[in-house]
Input
Amino acid sequence: MKKVPTAAQIKLAKQLKNARINFGCSQSVAAAICGVTTRAWQRWEAVERNIPYAALRLFLIRTHQDEIYGIKKGVDPEITKLIMKKLDHEDNYNKKYK
Output
């Protein structure tokens, strides 16, 4: 029997998806930013698995959305460089194959 997600779980999944969309990246890039598999990210957005709050915080901090959601932490510039490199790679792939 499938568990019915709580209102809090649904709200957290919406926040996660909205943050990803606001940043303008795919689920695979978002997963890479947090160091998880794409499938794990997909399950979080689909409310099939509980989202670790730390994963949401990590994504928000690394994508400079922490202040939007009320998290006040600095962002490592090296992480930003890695994210931008990953996004550039994904854009090049999409232009070439899609």
